[in-house]
């Protein structure tokens, strides 16, 4: 289940619960715990992209690196504090491993969807209802913030509170999570909401431009 970390034995013989992330070259390992919801919300709040309008309803998006945030979160969730040092690229890789997740299934059942999310620690399922139009409008209005930059570039930030709020409104049942870890983490909620919004957008009627 998500939240159930393997038991490891340290070099001193101590038993700890953590997940080992390995760097192949140079060979090194860090033992990590899962981030708390507050840690994830803070980390996700620092995500930024640069968006360039290319015209004809086309655009180009580029992620903005945040190595300071990567190192901060990595150090917070690392259990073997006296282990070999990780640089910002290795820290980002380790965070990506421990938080990896992927939607593999989305099936409609009446006014609800069953969405399957695969994680490093097991599969989870989420039963969500179709959002009300007001909820959809609120989400789309708050899903990102824009700051104008020179040369026609927009800096976009993505407040995690927007998908978390919508997820909390539409969720009917979630399974596959270990009790006591704080429920469904915010990066999972964001993935479920993204999949749900894609699914309901496909329900909109097509407009034939030639009609």
Quick take:
It is built from 6 helices and 12 strands. With 211 residues, it is α+β, with helices and mostly antiparallel strands.
User: What can be said about the biggest beta sheet?
Assistant: 4 strands, antiparallel
| Helix content class | 25-40%
Derived structural class: alpha+beta
**Domains, number:** 1
Strand content: 25-35%
Shape from CA axes? globular
Question: Can you lay out the helices and strands and say which pair or pack?
Answer:
Layout: E1 7-9, E2 15-17, E3 19-23, E4 28-32, H1 37-45, E5 48-55, E6 58-64, H2 67-77, H3 88-98, E7 101-109, E8 112-119, E9 122-129, H4 133-142, E10 145-149, E11 153-157, H5 161-170, E12 171-175, H6 186-201
Antiparallel strand pairs: 1-2, 3-4, 5-6, 5-11, 7-8, 8-9, 9-12, 10-11
Helix pairs in contact: 2-3, 4-5, 5-6
Describe this structure in words.
- The strands form four sheets. The chain has a four-stranded antiparallel β-sheet with strand order 6-5-11-10, with no helix packed on it. The protein has a four-stranded antiparallel β-sheet with strand order 7-8-9-12. Strands 1-2 form a two-stranded antiparallel ribbon.
- It has one domain (7-201).
- It is of the alpha+beta class and 211 residues long.
- It has helices at 37-45, 67-77, 88-98, 133-142, 161-170, 186-201; strands at residues 7-9, 15-17, 19-23, 28-32, 48-55, 58-64, 101-109, 112-119, 122-129, 145-149, 153-157, 171-175.
- A hairpin with a 2-residue loop joins strand 5 and strand 6 (58-64).
- It is globular and about 65 Å long.
- The model has no long low-confidence stretch (mean pLDDT 91).
- Helix 4 (133-142) runs antiparallel to helix 5 (161-170).
């Amino acid at each position: 289940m998500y939240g159930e970390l393997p038991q490891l034995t340290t070099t001193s013989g101590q038993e700890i619960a953590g997940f080992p992330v390995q760097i192949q070259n140079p060979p090194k390992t860090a033992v990590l715990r899962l981030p708390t919801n507050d840690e994830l919300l803070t980390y996700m709040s620092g995500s930024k992209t640069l968006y360039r309008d290319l015209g004809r309803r086309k655009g180009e998006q580029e992620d903005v690196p945040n190595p300071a945030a990567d190192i901060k979160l990595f150090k917070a969730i690392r259990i073997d504090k006296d282990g070999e040092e990780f640089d910002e690229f290795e820290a980002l890789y380790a965070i990506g491993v421990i938080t990896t997740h992927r939607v593999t299934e989305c099936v409609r059942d009446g006014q609800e969807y069953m969405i399957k999310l695969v994680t490093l620690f097991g599969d989870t399922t989420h039963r969500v209802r179709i959002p009300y139009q007001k909820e959809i409008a609120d989400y789309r209005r708050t899903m990102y913030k824009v700051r104008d930059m020179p040369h026609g570039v927009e800096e976009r930030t993505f407040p995690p509170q927007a998908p978390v709020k919508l997820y909390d409104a539409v969720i009917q049942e979630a399974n596959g999570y270990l009790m006591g870890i704080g429920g469904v983490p915010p990066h999972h909620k964001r993935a479920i909401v993204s999949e749900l919004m894609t699914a309901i957008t496909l329900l909109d009627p097509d407009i034939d431009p030639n009609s």
